[in-house]
Amino acid sequence: MASFALLSLLEPLAAQANPAADTFRQSCFSCHTIGGGRLTGPDLKGVGQRKDRAWLERFIATPQAVIDSGDAYATQLVQDARGVVMPTLPLTREQIAGLLDLIEAESALPKSQFAGLQIPEAPFTAADVARGRARFSGETKLKNGGPPCLSCHTMTGLGGLGGGRLGPDLTKVYERIPGRKALAAWLQSPATPTMQGLFKNRPLDSAEILPLVALFEAAAQRPGRSDQVATLIFFLLGLGGAVGMLLAFDGIWRRRFRSVRRALLAGGRNRGVR
């Protein structure tokens, strides 16, 4: 009985510990779904029926080389992705084999865990945008403890000094990653090393992703490229602070020898009188 109880506890843990699923989530999910439709790249559901395994292994390992070889299918993939070329990922043969096994297994399920979020087609409301802004700024804390977007990014309309400058301005991110579903997938599984380090163990919740998509979609529809006012305020404050410090140091320096100078002048006058 004890052995059976131990196995029953270990089985869920073994199911969760799937290196191929982690690799897909970190390296593939921002551009591909399995059964959820096209993003930047094609839906991978049943991809093993469209191309043989040897071709898939070669393309995953060296996509640019396959494209440069003039392969018709690879060329069509680039055209369908509007010129976006799949990056060469640092994957071993074992990892590539694991990914293909995972895609085959997930393709056979009624719904894959990598189908992606269900994104509504209806227009977002002002309340949706407001909720997204609250999460972007940190006014509403993220459910899993991740940092607010404002820590590293800025965008139009934040006011004050704007946001951080570590990451890019997100005012037009909806144009760079076009479409609600593609942007939601990127937020669900960001592909950049910095974002992965921050959100791998503290991912955005689906209830947080949709308001952020609403915010970015609304920002992209407003005129203007970025929040230049915040940059100007930051520059003027820095300039004013620098001038103020120079004036303060000048005043301190002038008073530094004033008492000594008075004593010297007084001594000179006394000698002149004698």
Write structural notes for this entry.
The relative contact order is 0.10. The longest helix has 29 residues, at 228-256. It contains 14 helices and no strands. The chain has 274 residues and is mostly helical.
Structural features:
274 residues, Cytochrome Bc1 Complex, Chain D, domain 2, 58% helix
**How many β strands by DSSP?**
0
What's the CATH architecture name of the domain at 126-221? Orthogonal Bundle
CATH topology of the domain at 126-221: Cytochrome Bc1 Complex, Chain D, domain 2
CATH superfamily of the domain at 126-221: Cytochrome c-like domain
Shape: elongated
Helix count, DSSP H or I runs of 4 or more residues? 14
Task: Describe the sheet with the most strands.
Answer: none
- Low-confidence runs of at least 5 consecutive residues: 1-15
Mean pLDDT: 81
**Secondary-structure element order, N to C:** HHHHHHHHHHHHHH
Taking all Cα atoms into account, the compactness measure Rg is 29 Å
Helix- and strand-based class? mainly alpha
Provide the β-strand percentage band: under 5%
